[in-house]
Structure formats: structure tokens, C-alpha cells
Amino acid sequence: MTGSSRRERLRAATELEIRQLARALLVERGSDAVSLRAIARELGITAPALYRYYESREDLLRQLCDDICTDLATELHAESEAVGEELVAKIFAVCRAFRRWALAHPEEFALVFATPRVEEERRPDRFGSVFLGIIGPFLAEGTSLAEPPFELPDLSAHQESLAEAFSTAGIDVPPAALRPEVVHFLLRWWVRLYGHVALEVFGRFPFDLKHADRLFEAMLRELTHETGLA
């Protein structure tokens, strides 16, 4: 082993240890507790020494988000694979697993899904690729979706960004398949899924909601019928 490769491995191990400590602080005390000073104290080094590994607290949190998304993507992939090849079953499995994960990991959910991103950070992540990977082959076949009973707004800009996201995730979907109703279909599912889960995680329903799981299941069935998957 060369001196250079040994240093690289030691650096990678230290970076991982820093992120693991940051994640433990996040889970135990929330994002406000994740500071370079607190992590340095746990490592027995000075806070300025951490700048050799991360440019700032924000840089550390960005990479921590990537770790969380990677772990979540792995979990959701496993749920998807466990139910076979039927499209609706795979979508339902991933949606249910996402809700379970969010309720079990509220601080991680808040960091990843309730923290505004600056413009240069807006890039596809491992989490998003799970949903694109499930729906991509379905769209590539040219399967028709239910058209909304109203005129859609101009979604051309979203078509371009969606095509880029599929490409970045390594999913081959012909540009012709990304019709306006397809963009609307994906946005509709994500907005409803995220909206319900966020309201439930943060306790922001406008009343004391009993049996939120039943409402969630009803929402999935409703979306299935509304978008023509049933």
C-alpha cells in the first residue's frame, strides 16, 4: 500500500466517522445540535481541525443528506423488489415504506425533505431515483395515462428537467414518452405523497387525526384511480 493510498483511506475513514457522529447528534437532539464544535469534542480534536475534512457545517449537512438518501434508497429498493413486477404493487410498497421510514426517523426526514436547498444544490439524488426507476420502464412502454379533465399549464420546462433526472439516474426513457400528462402524473403523486407524510410527521393536520394510516391507504387508492393505474 502506498503512502498516498493509506492517507486517502484514513481520510475517508475520518470523514465517515464525522458524518456518523453528526447523524447521531441529529437523531438524538435535532439538526440544531449538529455543530462542528460538538463533533470535534466527541472526536477529541479542535473544531478548526474539522475544516480539513468539510468546508463548513453546511457542507457536512449536505453530505449527511446524501448518506441518508442513499440508505433510504436502499431500503425502498428492497421493498420494491420484494413485491414482484406489478407496477401498482411496487408503487404502493415504496409509498408505504417511505411513510414508515419518515415516521420512524422524523429528524432525518426534516433535514432531507424540509430544509430549503440553494440553487446550486438542486440535483437529482438517490432517493428520487427509486421512484424514477419504478415508473421509467412503465413510461418507456408508452402506456397511456388518464388525461386530466382540464387543460394543463405549459410543462415544457419540467419535461426537460425530468428527462435530465431520468438520464442522470441511468434510466432510458424516450423523450417522446415524457408528455405533459406524464409530468403531471409524477408531480401529482409526489405532491400528494409528500404532503400527507409531512403533515403526519410534523403533526400539522388541522385537527386531531385518528387512524392516519387509513387515510393514507385511501389516498393511494384514490390516486391510482384518478391517474388511470387502476
How would you characterize the overall build of this protein?
- With 230 residues, this protein is mainly alpha-helical.
- The protein folds into 2 domains: 54 residues, Orthogonal Bundle (Arc Repressor Mutant, subunit A), CATH 1.10.10; 164 residues, Tetracycline Repressor, domain 2 (Orthogonal Bundle), CATH 1.10.357.
- Helix content is 66%, strand content 0%.
- The chain contains 9 helices and no strands.
- It is globular.
- 18% of the residues are buried.
Topology:
Blueprint: H1 3-29, H2 36-43, H3 57-81, H4 87-104, H5 106-113, H6 126-140, H7 156-168, H8 180-201, H9 212-226
Helix pairs in contact: 1-3, 3-4, 3-6, 4-6, 4-8, 8-9
Top-tier CATH class of the largest domain: Mainly Alpha
Mean pLDDT: 87
CATH topology description of the largest domain: Tetracycline Repressor, domain 2
Q: What would you say the CATH architecture of the largest domain is?
A: Orthogonal Bundle
Q: Strand percentage, roughly?
A: under 5%
What is the helix/strand order?
HHHHHHHHH
Euclidean distance between termini CA atoms: 58 Å
* Category by helix and strand content: mainly alpha
Which stretches are poorly predicted, pLDDT < 50 over at least 5 residues? none
SS summary, helix count: 9
Q: Biggest β-sheet: count, sense, barrel?
A: none
What is the global morphology? globular
Name given to the CATH homologous superfamily of the largest domain:
Tetracycline Repressor, domain 2
Instruction: Summarize the amount of helix as a percent range.
Output: 55-70%
User: What is the gyration radius calculated from CA atoms?
Assistant: 20 Å
